[in-house]
Amino acid sequence: MKKVSLLLITIALGISAYRFFNTYWADFADDSWDLSFNGTLTISKDYTWEEPINPWASKRDRIKNIVIEDGVTHIGEYAFSGCKNLTSVTIPNSVTSIGWSAFSDCYSLTSITIPNSVTNMEGAFANCRALRSITIPNSMKNIDGAFYECIELTSITIPNSVIKIGDNTFNNCISLTSITIPESVKTIGNEAFLGCSSLKSITCKAPIPPHSQIYSFAETPDSLLLLVPANSIEAYKKAEGWARYKKIQGI
Q1: At a CB cut-off of 8 Å and minimum separation 6, what does 114 contact?
Q2: Fewest CB atoms within 10 Å of the CB: 1, 154, 161, 180?
């Protein structure tokens, strides 16, 4: 009888301990977010805080997974910046914008899928040093500084909806070997591709060279192959930023 009672007490204590540890961090939360003991941060509704400090900043080293629930429309500036142990993120179709540096310095994040609802993404993944792949949706209009110093990024597909590749978007992406710029792009910002030292080819489908600046492609190999519409070769040879490349061929 004593053994049975002891067993029941042990089980009860175990359940209580589990519930305590699993909800411990939630005691510090409100009805818009919750951080469980296993490191899953759940965001249940839009949250406003004094930038760049968010309410879970002191616990960010514990965050391993982020689940943003349907209904959230905006991921704020610096929302998850510095979550160095973050490995997975779930973003619903209700999100339409991702704020500046929202996921910057998330060193363990290797891949992410952006839903088709998102139209704007500024500096969102800067310095995500392990990021190798990302899916950009056809809804995206502006990628401004989004992948600054993502040193493991080897390739990326820019959809035909993007109008602007902003300043520093791929700055120092030293593993990037090729990139295709769609016809929709009209502007390429300052230092957008600066330091992309492994680039072997750039394909730009725009018949009119996108407006770029003298440092848009600075410190990229002069010997890389630039592929452009066949009727636009001469225009690219004269265009600022593009004229640095001597190997220009038609597609």
Answers
A1: 91, 98, 121, 134, 135, 136, 137, 140
A2: 1
- Other beta carbons within 10 Å of 158: 17
Side chain identity at 82, as an amino acid letter?
A: G
Q: Which candidate, 47, 46, 45, 26, places its Cα nearest to that of 35?
A: 26
Q: How much is the pLDDT for 26?
A: 45
Q: What is the pTM (predicted TM-score) of this model?
A: 0.81
- Rounded CA-CA distance 239/210 in Å is 9
The helix/strand/coil state of 234 is: helix
Q: Is 151 helix (H, G, I), strand (E, B) or coil?
A: coil
Per-residue pLDDT tens over the stretch 159-175: 999 999 999 999 999 99
Evaluate whether 55 touches 31 at the Cβ level (below 8 Å): no
Each residue of 116-127: pLDDT tens digit? 999 888 889 999
Residue 19 binned pLDDT confidence (cut-offs 50, 70, 90): very low
With a cut of 60, say whether residue 23 has pLDDT above it.
no
Residues 63-90: what's their mean pLDDT?
Answer: 94
Instruction: Give the full edge-to-edge strand order of the sheet including 88-90.
Output: 33-35, 40-43, 65-68, 88-90
Cβ distance 160 to 182 under 8 Å? Answer: yes
CB atoms within 10 A of CB 154: 13
Per-residue pLDDT at 27: 38
Question: Strand order of the sheet with strand 74-75?
Answer: 74-75, 97-98, 120-122, 142-144, 164-165, 187-188
